[in-house]
Specification:
The chain contains one helix and twelve strands, in the order αββββββββββββ. The strands form two sheets. Strands 3, 4, 5, 7, 8, 9, 11 and 12 form an eight-stranded mixed sheet that branches. Strands 2-1-6-10 form a four-stranded antiparallel sheet, with no helix packed on it.
Length: about 150
Amino acid sequence: MAKKGLIGLVLTLILISGFFTYYILNAKPPSASAITEANITIPVKQGSYCWDGFLNGECKDMVEPFMMNDIEPVTVAPREKIEISYNRKPVKISKEVMVWSKSQSDPKSVNLEDGTIVAPQESGTYAVSTYGNWKRGSASHVFFIKVK
C-alpha cells in the first residue's frame, strides 16, 4: 500500500515539475536566427511582442528598426537568399517580411517562401522584420543587411 502512495507522489511531482519547466522555459518569446546562402550568421534582435508568461503577460513595443543602432549590418550579395528560423516552431508565421531601406521611409513587403527571403537587388542598408504567432503570443524579430 505504501508503494502505491509513493508512486502516486512521485508521478504527481513529475507532473508538477514538468508543468513548471514548460512555463519557465517558454516564459519569453522565441528567438530567431538568420543565415545567408554563403553560410554567414546574421545577428537578430527581438522586436515588438506580446507574450503570456507563467504568472503574468507582457507586451513590449520596440522602436523602428533603424533606431536600433546596436546591430551592425551583415554584407550580403544582391539577390542572395537568407534563411530565417526560430528556436521554437510558430503556430503561424507571416508569409511576408517587411524590408526597410535607410533611404526610404515606408517599408516594402517581401514574400517569405519556405522560411527564405531574397535580398534586394539594389545596393544599400536594409532592416528586415519578421513576425510569427505561437500558442503563448506573438513576436517580431529584426536583422540588418548591407547589399553590396
